[in-house]
UniProtKB/TrEMBL annotation:
GO terms for molecular function: 3'-5'-RNA exonuclease activity. This is Exonuclease domain-containing protein. Residues 236-418 form the Exonuclease domain. Keywords: Exonuclease, Hydrolase, Nuclease. It comes from the Eukaryota. It comes from Paramecium octaurelia.
């Protein structure tokens, strides 16, 4: 066993067998490069000079405790020059980030940031200037990198990072479920260094001649393979509602056919409804609707008689979709698109893929605005009241529903800074 009283991390030269500190890059006696340690790490020592990043950025973070809407509340940025690593001088700065959409303190005992500090924090975007001159960015793991990207999208800013290295994935002698404490212990880094723990680990590896290589880079993007290019950054939102024929006694053999489709196109940039769609649908199985149905929906028999087929209505709505670019359907519940899909299958009506994903406004309505006494998803009336909005028309009619939905979406975007994005998506069964 190699030992040395003066070296905390001893290594033995392969040529002269003298013992020296791991921190040195070559043997002090015979000037042999420190190849032994590099070979154990399965990395080429010579790449330190052939493929070396000039400035490495390291990002560490702390998030709130809200699992449904996580936000970064503390951000630590370090910048290291590998060629000057022995000087132990490098840039590091800590930021308290002002929360965007949710209250900060859900579990104060688990967080190091107080509500007062968060209220006086900086905007997330203001930290980007410290990453502009970095050649490489390192995160602890993929989840932290994804959180940084999510925060960029929440704040409606372009993420400055396209590629990164996940330290847990490239750490030498890695084990399954490797934790930050495991890496600190393996490198014998003292507990006092844990304030910038990831930075301390990267510095230690660089001092031991470890090389971060281009082959380690990973792409920073949402893991939504087919919808990725089409859905990121919605330009328009489709406020959608259907009405179905119904009877008072709810007979089991009664088909609740769609008798109305209502939709409005809300353009986020213009902050207004730019197009409307409303069609009455002729039912096939039960052409005559009940008085109970008329009372509940406001739809009369003569309107149904002058209606169109479900196929015609879907074709016309699909034509509108083609002109919208990136968009997503928003509903007041999970049932609308499920009913539409089932009836389309039964009547052999072809649906485009845009009907397979949607955002349920009740599921993403901010918890900070909800009633503190109710554990259920809020109704449209409750959401409007929480936002101080007046209800439009008879809320049971399809037209009134989409108008109220549009007013609510407008308020959430421009008064509550809510961004409707991929994390909110729900899916029906595949078509």
């Amino acid at each position: 066993m190699i030992c040395s009283e003066n070296c905390q991390y001893p290594w033995q030269c392969m040529i002269c067998e003298s013992v020296s500190d791991y921190f040195v890059k070559q043997c002090p006696q015979c000037q042999t490069p420190k190849e032994q340690f590099c070979r154990l790490l399965n990395t080429n020592y010579e790449l330190n000079y052939q493929e070396q990043y000039k400035k490495i950025g390291i990002i560490e973070m702390e998030c709130n405790q809200d699992r449904h809407n996580q936000e970064i509340i503390k951000l630590k940025i370090s910048k290291i020059l590998p060629q000057e690593i022995d000087d132990n001088e490098y840039f590091k700065k800590e930021f308290i980030i002002r929360p965007l959409t949710v209250p900060l303190i859900q579990s104060p005992q688990f967080q190091s940031v107080t509500q007062e500090q968060a209220n006086d924090g900086v905007l997330f975007k203001s930290t980007f200037q410290y990453l502009n001159d970095t050649d490489l960015v390192i995160f602890e793991n993929r989840a932290k990198a994804q959180m940084f990207l999510n925060s960029s999208i929440q704040n409606n800013v372009q993420c400055p990072i396209k590629q990164y290295i996940e330290l847990k994935n490239v750490f030498p002698f890695q084990k399954p479920q490797l934790t930050m404490n495991d890496m600190l212990r393996w490198l014998k880094i003292p507990y006092s260094a844990q304030q910038f723990a990831l930075t301390s680990i990267v510095i230690e590896l660089l001092k031991r001649s470890y090389t971060f290589q281009a082959q380690m880079l990973q792409q920073l993007q949402f893991p939504i393979p087919e919808e990725l290019s089409r859905l990121q950054g919605f330009t328009n939102l489709i406020l959608f509602d259907i009405q179905v024929a119904q009877v008072e006694d709810n007979r089991q053999n009664y088909h609740q056919e769609i008798i109305e489709i209502s939709a409005q196109v809300y353009n986020i940039d213009q902050r207004k409804r730019v197009q409307e769609f409303q069609k009455y649908i002729k039912p096939v199985d039960n052409p005559i609707i009940s008085e109970y149905c008329t009372k509940q929906t406001g739809i009369k028999q003569f309107q149904i008689n002058n209606g169109v087929s479900l196929q015609q209505a879907i074709n016309q709505l699909t034509d509108i979709f083609k002109e919208l670019g990136r968009f997503c359907i928003i509903t007041q519940g999970d049932i609308d698109l499920i009913i539409l899909k089932k009836e389309a299958e039964r009547k052999k009506v072809k649906l485009v893929r845009n009907f397979t994903y949607y955002i349920n406004i009740k599921k993403v309505f901010p918890k900070s605005l909800r009633s503190k006494t109710s554990l259920k998803d809020p109704s449209m009336t409750e959401m409007l009241e929480c936002c101080g909005l007046l209800q439009y028309g008879n809320h049971e009619s399809g037209t009134a529903k989409v108008v109220n939905l549009a007013n609510l979406v407008d308020h959430l975007i421009f008064n509550e800074n809510i961004r409707f994005d991929e994390k909110m998506l729900q899916y029906t069964c595949k078509i």
